[in-house]
Amino acid sequence: MMDVAPTVSVALGLPVPADAKGSPIAEIVADLEGMERVAVLAPDAFGWFAWTLWRDEMPFLQLLHTERSVILRSVLPSITPVNFTAMITGTDLEGHGARTYDHEIRAETLFDVMRTAGRRSAAVGFEGYTGSRLLARYSDIDGTTQRGSDDLIVDTVERIADADSPDFIIAQLGRVDDIFHQFGPSSSEVVPMLRDTDVRLRRLVDHLKPLGYGVIILADHGQHDIVDDPATTLKGGHGSDSDIDCQVPCTWL
Predict the structure, then answer these.
(1) Whole-structure pTM value
(2) Residues 83-133 pLDDT 10s
C-alpha cells in the first residue's frame, strides 16, 4: 500500500512524498509515466480473497487484470483510515499517524506534493466515510457526497473531473465494505453488489480516459468471513495481518 503514493508521484513527474517508505511500482510507472492526470479508484475491502471467489462475476475488471495485474499488501492494522492514508503518503501508521478518520495526518501527502507543484487534487467519498472525513480534509477539492449507492460516488467523480480537471483524484467506493461486513465476503449475497461495482468501474474508466487520466484500481484491504462469533452480528471483518485481510489486487490502464 505504501507504494501507491510514490508510483503516482513518479508517473506525474513529481517528487515522492517526503515521508514515503514505499517505492514506485515499475510496471505501473512504465505504463502511466507522462500521463496528465491520475485517478485512484478504490472499492473498499475488495481484497484478493474475494477477487478469487467472484472474478467471473466482474468481466470488466477481470479483463483489466488479465492485461495488467499486481498484488499489493495492506499496512497494519488492515483497516480503512490507516490504508487510505498509506496510499496518499507512502508510509505506514507509525509514519502518518492516522489510525482513525478523525486523526491528523502527520506526514506529507500526495495532496501536498500536488499543491506545491501548482497542481490540484480531489478526494471523493460518502459523508462520514474515510474518503470524505479524512482524505477530503486535505485535498483541494472536497468530493463529499451523501450516503447511498456507490453510483453517487461515480457521479461525483465524473462531475469533478469535468468541471475542475484535478491532476489527482482518489475515490472510495464504500458500499463494497459495507456489504461484505453485512453478509461476509464469500456469501453469494454479495454478488449483485459486485456486478454493479464492475459496471461502475467501467463507467468511470470510460469517462476518465478521454479526459487524460491514467487509472489505478485497488482496494485498501481485504476482508475475512466471521463464523459463529457471539460478540458481533457482522459476517465479515478485517484488521489482522492475515493474507485474506492484507492482500489486494491492483490493476491499471
Answers:
(1) 0.98
(2) 999 999 999 999 999 999 999 999 999 999 999 999 999 999 999 999 999
Please tell me the CATH superfamily of domain 4-252, with its number. Alkaline Phosphatase, subunit A (3.40.720.10)
Q: Which residue has the cell 458481533?
A: 232
Domain boundaries, the chain: 4-252
- Residue 228: is its pLDDT beyond 90? no
Question: Which residues make beta-bridge pairs with 41?
Answer: 171, 217
Report helix, strand or coil for 252: strand
What torsion do the CA atoms of 43, 45, 51, 56 make, to the nearest 10 degrees? -50
Provide the angle, in degrees to the nearest 10, between the axes of the packed helices 151-164 and 191-208. 10
State how far the Cα of 242 lies from the Cα of 174, in Å rounded to an integer.
22
Distance separating alpha carbons of residues 218 and 45, to the nearest angstrom = 9
Q: For residue 218, what are the contacts with CB-CB under 8 A and spacing of at least 6?
A: 4, 40, 42, 72, 248, 249, 250, 251
Helix residue spans in the chain (DSSP H): 4-11, 26-32, 48-54, 59-67, 80-89, 93-96, 110-116, 130-133, 151-164, 175-183, 191-208, 243-246
CB-count burial class (<10 Å; 0-12, 13-18, 19+) for 184:
buried
Residue type (1 letter), 121: S
Q: What is the mean pLDDT of residues 172-200?
A: 98
Radius of gyration of the chain (CA): 17
pLDDT at 176: 98
